[in-house]
Amino acid sequence: MITHDLRLLADAIYDKKGEHAVSLDLRAIDGAITDFFMVCDGSNTTQVGAIADNIAEKMKEEGHTLYRSQGEGNNFWIIQDYGNIVVHIFLKEYREFYRLEELWADVPRKEYKERRVPKAAADKTQE
Question: SS3 for 78?
Fold first, then answer.
């Protein structure tokens, strides 16, 4: 189920043209506040907000509860807590400055790519 949820998050990120979606597996860390971090970035504050909104909508559709969210006031770094997954949506410059992934460099990580619909399938959906 977690694999599905992480992929759902990555798709929600890429739906709004977010970049560099990465999950960090924190399950082996004693005392970790969550099982996974999902980290991504956007190129401007409007995009960061749109990514956060899309994630919240998609997770709600799947029955997930957003327990806490912070950062919507300025959209530099939005954090969404879904219990076993905490999502970090950064403005690109803030991600580079805080380097969250480097703090957790010793945990397993997975990079997600945008799923692309083959051109023939995309043409059929537009008919």
Answer: strand
What digits encode the pLDDT tens for the residues 9-37? 999 999 999 999 999 999 999 999 999 99
Q: How many CA atoms lie within 13 A of 78 on its CB side?
A: 26
Measured distance CA(109)–CA(36) in Å, rounded: 10
Domain count, the chain: 1
Structure token pair of residue 60: 């709600």
CA distance 49 to 113: 21
Over the stretch 44-69, which tens digit does the pLDDT of each residue have? 999 999 999 999 999 999 999 999 99
Predicted local confidence at residue 115, as pLDDT: 86
Which CATH number does the domain housing residue 120 bear? Answer: 3.30.460.10
How far is 9 from 116, CA to CA, in rounded Å? Answer: 16
Task: Domain of residue 16: give its range.
Answer: 2-125
